[in-house]
Amino acid sequence: MANYLKILPIILVINIASCTQVPENRPFVNTNSSNESYESKDRKYKQLYDSIYINLALNKDLNKEALALFIKDIQIMTDINLFNKVSKIAFEIGDYGAADIIASKWIKISPNSYLPYKFGLSASLENNNFSRANNYFLSYLKTINPQSKSDYSRLMFSLSENRNRLNVIKFFEDYLQINKNRLLSLSYIELLYSYNKQTKVIEYINKIGTYNERNLIRLESSSLAALNQLTPAKDILIKYLQSKDIFDRQVQIELLEIYLKLDDMLSATKLIDKILMSDPDNISIILQISRLLYNSGKLDLSEKYLSSLVIDTDEINYLRGMLDYRAGNYRESIVHFDRITSHTYKIQAQINKSSSILKIHGLVEAIEYLENLKTKYTSEDIKLQFWLAQVSHYNDKKLYRNIIEIVNKSLISYKDNINLVYARAMAYEALKKVDLMEKDLLFILSIDNKNSNTLNALGYSLAIHTDRFDEAYNYIIQALDYDPGSPAILDSMGWVLFKKGNYVDALKYAEIAYKKDQDPEIIEHYCQILIKNGLYSESRKIMEVEFKKNPNNSDLIDKLTSLHNNVPL
Fold first, then answer.
1. Number of folded domains that form the chain
2. Domain containing 492: what range?
3. pTM value?
4. Tens of pLDDT along 30-63?
């Protein structure tokens, strides 16, 4: 901090001098005759000095110092832009008390601006102060157009970043129960969707009715699909499309995605033909369809539509490279990745190329390739991606000690990077160093307490490595709150309930997880829970299906065979 102080006098001289210079061809102003009091001048210059200091601190990423100084001298501050900047800093740091103080003073300066009320509402909800939140919200409503949905959406968008989501939900649940406001309800539904609260999205849509509104139809269908209720999600979109005379390509694409999830290829191909019939030469549509097919594992069909394109773009080369990689054509994938020049795809293409090199030449050459790439870029963010790619390659080879070594090395440059720390935590978990894993994961949660992946990883690891099942459950339930549609988290919840002896509820979660994702570990858990519930024939059916789908997965076959050896026929 002392080093930064040294340059302040220079800055002050420049700024103050520029304010007091007498312009040419203008009469000299006698400052002694000014009506402004010495006290007012002192206040003015103190404000100027502190504003410069605060901006300097912000430019040097000294956010806590800037916030502390601003709060200390907040009574003399009048710079609206500075109020806005420092408010955001208070939220980033998590100092909601300071955010509330800033909002209160800001209102006195700009009572007709919506911004201080928005910040104040957000801060109050983080502080569990519902009464104060209500005052801010009612004042916010007075600054907006009550007939403008965008004004409500603007508020909800800012609240989407709140950490204490439960408080936000409780506040608007209580308010909307008394005050029937459709426009606010529409914006609140969008907020719930951003929170991954699909069940509540559907609940509120049912309360207010869709009136065949496009956005609500799409939100309802998407929420149902996320909850694995694919048939009703499909039916809603079909009904909507049948009711409209216009050609709605976006909704058709969303319907196609559901058909693919249902593995209804007859309906999917018919819909593709219909979409392409309307605009057969549209490259963007063909690419979109190819990507959907690729993501659904329909590689041959994806290749079919992609091959119809005679042009050669970076996006097309990228998808062709990925298709070749998935098909095991690693040398061909490299050819496509090497053709890519635009920044949008180039970095990821280079990372994917390293995966192809790993398959062809082995780990050493793949790592050397990534190391060489680091020397060609100055951006630390890009270099970080190459570090993480190296970690991924070591993980593929189950070289967990190498992961720990490389993460420790990379953290010198990327201090406290969450992705790197998470990778090290998972390496510790694989080595059964649970204490070190827990330390790393708790560190991540101290920075980002709503990180669903970390909450799930910690809960699941505690469930499989320790008997701390209640703790594990608490972490997983938090993860599920932030990401209720995740098959991995649903599987974790099923497994921790299984460990706690609650086999009936465990089955509910395991079944949903299995329907959403047939990951080998999810399959194994599902079968084990089915057996524990006495559903032997159901478990055997799952085993037979997966044996046909995964004939080369010897690990899965061995585990399921062992699991069913002592099961009644």
1. 1
2. 471-569
3. 0.79
4. 334 444 444 455 555 555 656 665 776 667 677 7
Cα-Cα-Cα-Cα dihedral sign, residues 548, 554, 559, 562: positive
- Report DSSP letters for 454-478, one per residue: HHHHHHHHHHHHSS-HHHHHHHHHH
Q: DSSP string spanning 107-170? A: HHH-TT-SHHHHHHHHHHHHTT-HHHHHHHHHHHHHHS-TT-HHHHHHHHHHHTT-S-HHHHHH
Residue 36 maps to a domain = no
338 in any annotated domain: no
- Residue 45's pLDDT is 52
How far is residue 481's CA from residue 325's CA, in Å, rounded to a whole number? 36
The reply to whether 232 falls in a domain is: no
Q: How far apart are the two ends of the chain, measured CA to CA in Å?
A: 75
Q: Helix (H, G, I), strand (E, B), or coil: what is residue 228?
A: coil
Residue 329 DSSP code: -
Neighbours of 81 (CB within 10 A): 9
Instruction: Give the whole-angstrom CA distance, residue 420 versus residue 407.
Output: 6
User: Are 394 and 403 within 8 A, CB to CB?
Assistant: yes
Q: Which of 80, 76, 124, 82 is nearest to 101 (CA)?
A: 124
Domain of 556, CATH number, reads: 1.25.40.10
List, in order, residues 6 or more apart from 62 with CB less than 8 Å away: 1, 4
* Per-residue pLDDT, 383: 95
DSSP assignment letter at 312: -
**Amino acid at residue number 181:** N
The closest of 399, 398, 389 to 419, measured between CA atoms, is 389
